């Protein structure tokens, strides 16, 4: 089952993921999805191996998704709660990570409000020769690779054939709508969608879509209509309420009027358009409530379900890198 | 072991529980109590199935009791901590629940400070056809079915024969004393005790025992003495300190003088009277400290022990409903 | 594997630990370290037995270390989070502990900011005849036995032969440097190091090293140099930032200048000196950053690793006391 080509100990960014690597992740996730459809949704793959969930920034959805993925691989899990942590006692982040390494953690799933923290920890782990795989579960505004991979998996299953392959998105028009500037989800998706050959359009108010985004090979729009036109896929992004206090948007209501996805706006898209949102959703802001619940368009629940399979796949592949094929 | 008559996917309220259903729960809990007396206190019943503990209101005792019950059934557990949750990010409670459903949770144990939340989530799960069983672990002042069932189990074991049956409480005088008005424990117990044929008396200051309680078929008293007289069972309820600030009681000391259970007051009861409290106890308020520790009268520790067996039974029965008899 | 001489249900203090007992712990930990070097780092020893982690004082490192130790013995774990606890509802600490006992916990790992709490709980558990083993995971300024035992284990492995024995520290000069007055780590280490026959020197400013420490049979110094001279081992202690506000030290900078361990100061020690710190470390306060990271001197990472093996050993030995040899 393990493709020979997987050579990553860490999953930190999708920037240099090849199509072949994307397809390895998709196919491995597909196999695990089959496991999840069984009566006993568990495999002994990572038995007695330790996954440390180091969520310096709090999270419900992603943390639980990783926790469940790890449990279904029979791993043991250590959780790090920022509130009760040694950090408040003056310890550095690297020392915290090293403590988990010294205890025996072989995987670290790291979320941090600052960009680059998972990369720094991964470099330190490599320096220690510690055989630890680091997975970026969201760092600042930088990247959130597992989210983009689960989006890709969800979309390839929606558009493709039996076995999900990234090429099924070739030439598809994807509109990413919302607070692109602060979105690690958007950045990771830009890499994977471009690698898959999709035609990516970005739409946001100018304050939330600066020029620097030209480098990604996507088309920028400061209005939502041209992005939505004939789009096969619409990815809505979460809008944080703080953006209003920062004077980046006039109000949530005005944002919704101009950029919120509604049944009406969806008419400009391809008739079989699919809608994604990484969650948690502010109903009536990024997307209208009725549209979110419409299973004909919304793949939001499938995204959550895909998340467990994708994260099982990533831990599995990373674990396989360390120790050779698991038999 | 599974009685044919169990037809509940959810356990939300004891309002319409039949005697037959109560007895199914009691007998299943009795079987699990036997498991808990073994060297290896674990059965593979719910292996790889996911129980989501969604405690929107914080809890030590009930959450740990459910967690241990789930572990002893070999389930995997996801915990939801309200502080670090998506709720603070604007997500609705239903969307939070749907996220856990989409991840693969098959059981949701829900506590919420608002009455009706577990019911709303259960209805949504049914609408989704999601084969999810919802268990109300306490909703506002409304109900706390697993607490009343563990009280029933504890009492039937105290009064009955080898196999606990609800009929062993027939005709027994039960005094429920304390903050009945705000008590979900009292409301659930009223249903199960009346179904079992007990003679239920309520005692509290008028501010904590309004007229609406007449509908339950219990006798109301605004003084404790008539309720205690010849009582076979006294259930004391937790008094929250806030009640003083709300001017519902003059002071904790005065409350104790008028309604606190003491060794002296107990003399009015049946000589073999048994005392319960759902915990956590304010020693010297609801009950005097020495009485609480007297194993001749107090069943408080047995209640906690029964809790694990009852919760194993409920999860087992709910799980059995979904998928047919587990062999 | 189990030595016949282990007769402790609880591990509360190292005050009266004999050399024979220390060696039993070291040898059992050594066996578990062998388990931890295997592919499958897990043994079924405590399967389905419940370890309650009652950390009334928050902790990352010690709590996770115990959690991992318990998981590697296949135990089930209940966690107590002080913030969300029944304590805030007026319950006494003893009642909280009794709740976990009544649920079926057989081990309680207790940390509390007040000295003596684990001892009180252990006495209550014995009174209840509850076959519960209590482990002190740090009580106030009193003791932290598992930390001192992991220090001993780390040192014996650094200095001794294949199988760690406490006699390998006989005659070694150990300098304990830092906030000795408030250190439960120092107190526990004083007992075990003296039992092992080490020559213990204490160094701290007078405000942090009062006269009462004369009773331990160690040499007191109010300057660091005489303690470090030809020392084989230097134990640095954590300095809490509060000590500055309490006017016990002038500033962190001045503390570091006078008592901080640096590469320069280390030249006074034995050339093969080993440096320990219980963590979390304030880099540049108790110890200079470069020295902390120098694997030639620093055993800090080994301490963390030893922690898991030592805690497995303690739970194992305590568990064995209850029920007879596990076969």
Tags for this model:
disordered C terminus, Rossmann fold, 5-stranded parallel sheet, 4-stranded parallel sheet, 9 strands, transferase (chains A, B, C), 2 domains, alpha/beta, globular, 12 helices, 327 residues, homotrimer, Asp_carbamoyltransf_Asp/Orn-bd (chains A, B, C), aspartate carbamoyltransferase activity (chains A, B, C)
Overview of the structural elements:
The structure is a homotrimer of 327-residue chains. With 327 residues, chain A is an alpha/beta fold. The first copy, chain A, folds into two domains: 19-143 and 305-323, Rossmann fold; 145-303, Aspartate/ornithine carbamoyltransferase (Rossmann fold, 3-Layer(aba) Sandwich). The first copy, chain A, is built from twelve helices and nine strands. Chain A has helices at 19-36, 61-72, 93-103, 117-127, 145-159, 184-195, 225-228, 242-245, 252-259, 263-266, 289-292, 300-323; strands at 50-55, 76-80, 105-112, 133-139, 173-177, 199-203, 219-221, 233-236, 274-276. The first copy, chain A, has a five-stranded parallel sheet. In chain A, helix 1 packs across helix 12 (300-323). Chain A binds chain B through residues 36, 40-42, 58-61, 64-65, 67-68, 71-72, 81, 83, 238, 240-241, 279-283, 285, 301-305, 307-308, and chain B through 47-50, 76, 78, 80-81, 83-86, 89-92, 95-96, 98-104.
